[in-house]
Design goal:
This protein has helices at residues 2-24, 29-53, 64-73, 75-110, 112-126, 130-141, 145-168, 173-181, 186-220, 230-239, 243-271, 276-279. It has 281 residues and is mostly helical. The longest helix has 36 residues, at 75-110. The chain is flat, with a radius of gyration of 23 Å. 30% of the residues are buried.
Length: 281
């Protein structure tokens, strides 16, 4: 009971502090960092207090302190799974899928036939459930990281493709007429006008694809993997009722996903610094 009351008290105090900061210092740089950090730390304290105060079994929900201890004990194991799943499977599939989507988008932009024929097929494939595609690709490409990369390619290709096609069509008629007045070739118009205009759309697709890549790589490992990888570890740890290790793997995935998304957001800011959405920030 003491744990529960203490956790609730910390939550209420933290809520009041966050409310005060957000209301009186909404634009301060330190406030934008402190508020989410304080909110996240409060959630962990509340989680710890409720689990311990209500005597929840670690098999159902382990407290954060137990997860942190298991994380510290399994750093070598977690690092090996990170390399197998994130660096090999997710990252390679992300680069291949997004690169292919950009190239195909340019081809579609030049060909009305592809625009009418490929995009509907792409929408159909994008709607296919990952749990149906993953076993097939694992059988085709084997049980190592190549099959996970193939699943990631399928998942990220069409979101990036749709955004890139929309971005290439974002220029207005006056801008295109101006390039024609300068006798610009298609390649010159593409490099000087259409690709820069497509960058905000492209980065929207790339940021969406960061989370899809992690999900695809982890889920694909449920259907066949060597004795390493985050999806493999999660499935085997659940069977062994080692829930702290499962949550440790989830923590690694969450940190990797946040870092991946944040890195892409920083790259977007550097590339599209001229866009009104970036200047407003």
């Amino acid at each position: 009971m003491i744990w529960t009351v203490g956790a609730i008290a910390v939550w209420l105090v933290s809520w009041g502090v966050n409310h005060y900061i957000a209301r009186h210092h909404p634009n301060a740089g330190w406030a934008k960092l402190l508020v989410p950090v304080l909110f996240g730390a409060t959630l962990l304290v509340l989680w710890e207090g409720l689990v311990r105060g209500l005597n929840v079994s670690p098999v159902i929900l382990p407290p954060p302190s137990m997860i942190a201890a298991r994380f510290a004990q399994s750093t070598d194991l977690l690092w090996g799974d990170f390399i197998q799943t994130i660096l090999k499977g997710a990252l390679s599939g992300y680069v291949i899928g997004c690169g292919a989507a950009i190239v195909v988008a340019v081809l579609i932009d030049r060909s009305p036939f592809l625009q009418r024929g490929l995009l509907p097929v792409g929408n159909f494939v994008a709607a296919l459930p990952i749990v149906g595609i993953a076993p097939i690709l694992v059988m085709w490409f084997g049980f190592d990281w190549q099959s996970k990369a193939a699943v990631v390619v399928v998942m990220v290709f069409f979101p990036v493709l749709v955004n890139m096609v929309a971005g290439l069509a974002a220029t207005d008629a006056l801008q295109r007429d101006l390039m024609a007045t300068y006798s610009a070739s298609y390649g010159q118009a593409l490099m000087k006008l259409r690709l820069p205009a497509a960058m905000p759309f492209l980065f929207n697709g790339l940021k969406i694809a960061t989370t899809l890549a992690l999900i695809g790589a982890i889920v694909a490992e449920f259907f066949g993997s060597p004795t390493r990888g985050m999806g493999f570890r999660i499935s085997t740890a659940v069977g062994q009722l080692d829930l702290p290790l499962v949550w440790a793997e989830i923590t690694v995935a969450a940190l990797a996903g946040s870092g991946f998304f944040g890195g892409m957001a920083l790259l977007e800011k550097a590339v599209t610094f001229w866009h009104p959405s970036q200047r407003a920030k």
